[in-house]
């Protein structure tokens, strides 16, 4: 059986490699073609029993999925690099002040109960809607909104202990609720 598998794979590779490579080049250029073709045939080898006859459409579908995954990964890397760059390149404020504010806010967040932190991270950092976050934590969207409101209030209270955050909130024109919670009414 292994000889048959090796012969079948060799026949598929010899018969389809050029067309798969041409397809990938037409979609993504020569720089990535060799890598994507290699990955495509690695998948074909691992799933040789699933490769239908004729194999070309299946192989092109695999190559398409690999390209799509590569594009997503590149978008994530680009986004991550941009985020890191935003942390290291000051816009208008002093970098030391921004780092101190961020550090103080993270300390305030860390002082909250785990459930509050989870809600704040799901909504603020992960960008989930209340309905999506409710599914994650296993409650109704209305219940989540109430819990999130309370968690935000507790974060505001915890952050008021840090003068850098309190002063930054006032300077940035934060809501009256934040100003009152931080002891700085407008």
Automatic annotation (TrEMBL):
Q: Where is the RNA polymerase sigma-70 region domain?
A: 13-77
Residue ranges constituting the RNA polymerase sigma factor 70 region 4 type domain according to the UniProt record: 104-155
A Pfam family that this protein carries is: Sigma70_r2
Cite the entry's keywords alphabetically.
Answer: Sigma factor, Transcription, Transcription regulation
Gene Ontology molecular functions:
DNA binding; sigma factor activity
Biological process GO annotation list? Answer: DNA-templated transcription initiation
Which family does the record claim for this protein?
Answer: Belongs to the sigma-70 factor family. ECF subfamily.
* Annotated protein name in UniProt: RNA polymerase ECF-subfamily sigma factor
Q: Which organism is it from?
A: Streptomyces griseus subsp. griseus (strain JCM 4626 / CBS 651.72 / NBRC 13350 / KCC S-0626 / ISP 5235)
């Amino acid at each position: 059986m292994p000889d048959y598998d090796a012969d079948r794979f060799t026949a598929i590779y010899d018969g389809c490699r050029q067309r798969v490579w041409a397809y990938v080049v037409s979609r993504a250029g020569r720089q990535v073609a060799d890598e994507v073709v290699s990955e495509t045939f690695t998948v074909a080898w691992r799933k040789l029993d699933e490769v239908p006859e004729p194999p070309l459409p299946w192989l092109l579908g695999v190559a398409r999925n690999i390209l799509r995954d590569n594009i997503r990964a590149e978008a994530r890397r680009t986004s991550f690099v941009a985020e890191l760059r935003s942390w290291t390149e000051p816009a208008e404020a002093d970098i030391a002040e921004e780092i101190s504010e961020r550090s103080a806010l993270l300390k305030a967040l860390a002082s909250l109960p785990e459930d509050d932190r989870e809600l704040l991270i799901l909504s603020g950092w992960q960008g989930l809607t209340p309905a999506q976050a409710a599914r994650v934590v296993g409650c109704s969207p209305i219940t989540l909104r109430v819990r999130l409101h309370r968690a935000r209030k507790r974060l505001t209270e915890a952050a008021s202990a840090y003068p850098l955050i309190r002063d930054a909130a006032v300077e940035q024109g934060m809501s009256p609720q934040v100003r009152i919670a931080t002891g700085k009414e407008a």
